[in-house]
Amino acid sequence: MGERVATSDENTPAAASAVVEATDISKSFGDVAVLEEVSFSIPDNRVTAIIGPNGSGKTTLAELITGVDTPTAGEITLHAGGERPVGYLPQDPRFQPSATVHETIAFYAALLAGETDVDAALARVGLEAAADRRTDALSGGMRRLLGIAVSLLGSPELVVLDEPTSGLDPEMTRHVYDVISGLTERDQAVVLTTHDLSRAADADYLLVVSDGDIVSAGSPNAVRADTETDTLADAFETAVRGRTVTSKGSDRSE
Ligand SMILES: Nc1ncnc2c1ncn2[C@@H]1O[C@H](COP(=O)(O)OP(=O)(O)OP(=O)(O)O)[C@@H](O)[C@H]1O
Questions:
Q1: ABC transporter domain location, by residue (predicted)?
Q2: Which of 22, 62, 106, 145, CA to CA, is 20 to 30 A from 151?
């Protein structure tokens, strides 16, 4: 059985640079091996994007990082402290159907010690006008925005967002990414999963997941250099498909 270790020891050398360290972690669901002996670090105070094809294990990785799930083998160490070390937006956030948006935020805020300005939490994700709406009357995008607001309560040192902008319109997508970059200025680390490679190119650090493995990791520039490609789309294609393409898309592999 794998281990997940939480520590708020700021004095360990790793804590200075990594908010999460994973060593040789594997995850299986019954006979299905989703991740096999992967090791990685998540940099502190930076935005890390997990990219990979459908079913490659991004959500599984996000759940292991948050502690929602535990690895079958290996060890994950979290270097984050505070009352709420990790905030999490699940891929499909669900709420008490009969509660309003305002009541939902107030409910989660009440679990924390400090005072929370519920209206400010809603304004942060542009949901002020929906404050009195029941959560079962929200669109998918609004439900996601509410989930983001909940994940940010208590200013966790690490915020993990599983497809934060899926289903959002372009204006709200831009707004959410502005909120995300603001978090690192407040010394919060962000991990997000996304299929949007143009957005992933703006992240500080990438984990490229494919077929149970992390096939490339580093800054977008490092991933491009690693795969000898010009664009992140080509880097993704090369890392994931194991072939080299030019930035114009023609196949250069044998
Ligand atoms: N609870 C579970 N039981 C069995 N198999 C699971 C379970 N959760 C995930 N899987 C399998 O693990 C693999 C990875 O799933 P995961 O949701 O992590 O992928 P993903 O990269 O997030 O996919 P997507 O981009 O489609 O959201 C898939 O083959 C999936 O079917």
A1: 20-236
A2: 22
